[in-house]
Design a protein that fits this description.
Blueprint (H helix, E strand, L loop, with lengths): L4 E8 L2 E8 L11 E6 L5 E4 L6 E3 L2 E3 L6 E3 L4 E7 L4 H10 L4 E3 L6 H12 L4 H16 L11 H12 L7 H7 L4 H12 L3 H18 L4 H7 L5 H12 L6 E3 L1
Parallel strand pairs: 1-10
Antiparallel strand pairs: 1-2, 2-8, 3-6, 3-8, 4-5, 4-7, 6-9
């Protein structure tokens, strides 16, 4: 299998950083997170939307749930994923301005990106890489000129319950009841606040747990079981649909 990337993946509540050398292009895919893609070497990155040609970007932000393919063969790249229901995610959503893929001003992030690249090259701890990634997202989020509305408290409570009970089968009706909403009202409000239906969101959380295990060095079978997948094949199919690559094609450092 051809390598689609070599580097490190670090995760935190509501986001992740993928940093290293890009390999083969991805397939078309879409995911729940807003994606910030930043070349740390001199070249650019390329994105392609369905039924469109490849376009080159010096830096880019990709809206959540928008299908795209990615290519930056041989480039040193950082990709930061931010969940749109997080506070920073809601601010970053404004930067997308309704567009699937938008350019970012690379120059305004140069100091933060130099620090991120230096930490990676110095084999820094995960916590240091996360700090630098947060510096990038905070700076971009501060550019939003539209007031960021807080997440509905009932959905906030529901997300906490989901994370606590993700290892079990979690019925929508049970979570709705815990938030004092009818199932129909909860279903509508959940989509309105997160941009995603309930069941696909549960699957996203399972991918996040499995990816955390995989990034920490566990093999595909162990990571799959950590995320509640039946086997590594199910995990790999879901992962490829969301990220455009097979997890086994990414070489961890």
């Amino acid at each position: 299998m051809k390598t689609t990337g070599t580097g490190r993946i670090v995760l935190w509540r509501g986001g992740s950083l993928w940093i290293g050398r890009a390999g083969e292009p991805t397939d078309f895919h879409s995911h729940h997170a807003i994606q910030i893609t930043l070349p740390l070497s001199d070249g650019g990155v390329r994105f392609r939307r369905p039924n469109a040609n490849w376009s080159v970007y010096r830096a880019a932000i990709i809206a959540a749930h928008r299908p795209h393919a990615f290519e930056a063969r041989g480039e040193f790249v950082a990709m930061i994923f931010v969940e749109p229901e997080s506070r920073e995610g809601r601010a970053l959503h404004q930067l997308c301005q309704g567009e699937p893929i938008s350019s970012l001003a690379y120059e305004m992030l140069e100091l933060e990106l130099n620090a991120l690249a230096a930490s990676y090259n110095g084999v820094a701890r995960d916590s240091e890489l996360i700090t630098h990634a947060h510096s990038v997202t905070a700076k971009l989020a501060a550019m939003s000129t539209v007031p960021v509305l807080p997440l509905d408290k009932r959905i906030e409570q529901a997300l906490e319950l989901l994370r606590e009970r993700i290892a079990d089968a979690v019925p929508l009706a049970e979570i709705a009841d815990a938030t004092c909403l009818s199932p129909d009202r909860f279903r509508h409000l959940f989509i309105e606040q997160t941009g995603m239906r309930f069941r696909p969101y549960v699957l996203w959380l399972r991918i996040e747990i499995a990816l955390t295990a995989f990034a920490s060095g566990r093999n595909l079978t162990e990571a799959s079981h950590a995320g509640g997948f039946a086997d590594s094949a199910h995990f790999s199919r879901t992962f490829k649909r969301m990220f455009g690559i097979a997890p086994s094609s990414f070489e961890r450092e």
